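FAQ: What does the model actually see?

It sees only this:
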Amino acid sequence: MMDRRMRLALWLLFVSAFSLGPGPVHGQSSPSELGSLQKDMETVKNDLARIKKELNEIRQLLIQHPLQPAPPARVMSKVKVGDGPSLGNPDAPVTLVEFSDYQCPFCGRFFNQTFAALKTQYIDTGKLRYVFRDFPLDQLHPQARKAAEAAHCAGEQRKYWEMHDTLYRNQRTLQVEHLKGFALELSLNGNAFTTCLDGGKYAATVSQHHAAGSELGVTGTPAFFVGKSSPDGTIEATAIKGAQPVTVFRQAIDRLLDSQ
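And it is asked to produce this:
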């Protein structure tokens, strides 16, 4: 309706330029026709004034109540927690599984900006069990797979998490020679670590982690799954994709804790 009236208004302007001059003109509209056109013009003006008013009202509402970004979609998945390295109480009511890549900058962002808060608020207080699974993106990050193996080799000497943290703090220097240097900095037995790393002792473990993530549809990192813990090691989990703000994780964890 409004499109027709707008076209009519433009047509009237065109007609008025040629047909409303002084004196009789051949083909000029009759007084009754002009009256009808003027009435339509008034209707168009009133409609435009009403639309302008409504737009101003909408603008004021948006200023007072700005639109908030939609939260990440909740996608439920059956997740086998597996035997990945974990932190926190094994009997914690909620479990968070992360699939990660040591060379991935977004994984580094999660580690640097979010993980410490989750550890203090949930892991250290016995509310959350955190499980780490390897998901090296080989084509993008060729050093990530060996870095993952290095963490497991350090785990043989009870320094898995120390190596884990060191790798994330040194994402740009993950060549094998640097991995061996990190082992010495962590006071590991250098010979044992080198034998483990060079021999690829945990290559199959890393591949198994990656395969588990692929079965869940993981294609990028970091990828998280959070759900209620269960005795059989399988959780009905919500997927959280990417290095989301800590508030996203808190909302998901608190919702599960409140439902206990």
